[in-house]
Amino acid sequence: MKHGISMAASVMSLSWIWRDKILQLSTKIRLYQALVMSVLLYAAETCTLLSCDEETLEAFNTKCQRQILHIHWSQHDTNAEISARTGLPPVTWTSSEDVVCWYSAT
């Protein structure tokens, strides 16, 4: 799981995209879903997720959303507020939906 997060973090390191003032938030969110979440969820599907792994995935997801929204850690915005601003569901919902779809397809 740590390897998958480090791979997704390397994609997230494209900080010039997240700092760009010309790109709209919706474009950044779509890029995040296409580039970062695909790598992260691929890594999550290859192993059994424990509750501590789900918490780690959710913490990484929230950290990335804070980076996209330019929210510093000292600003006391809750995770629910951040999810509402980006419109992204928690990672655990996304990964469980993908697993259900994968199992129903086979």
Outline the secondary-structure elements.
Blueprint: H1 2-12, H2 15-19, H3 25-45, H4 51-69, H5 79-86, H6 91-105
Helix pairs in contact: 1-3, 3-4, 4-5
Compact description:
The protein is mainly alpha-helical and 106 residues long. Helices cover 75% and strands 0% of the residues.
Distance between the termini: 24 Å
Average predicted confidence as pLDDT: 80
Poorly predicted regions: 98-106
Q: Strand tally, please?
A: 0
Helix content: over 70%
What order do the helices and strands follow?
Answer: HHHHHH
Number of domains: 1
* Biggest beta sheet summary: none
Count of helical segments?
6
Determine the strand fraction and express it as a percent band: under 5%
> In angstroms, what is the radius of gyration?
14 Å
Structural class: mainly alpha
Overall, the morphology is globular
Give your account of this protein's structure:
With 106 residues, the protein is an all-alpha fold. The chain has one domain. Helices cover 75% and strands 0% of the residues. It is built from six helices and no strands. The chain has helices at 2-12, 15-19, 25-45, 51-69, 79-86, 91-105. α1 (2-12) runs antiparallel to α3 and α4 (51-69) crosses α5 (79-86).
Notable traits:
6 helices, 0% strand, 106 residues, globular, single chain
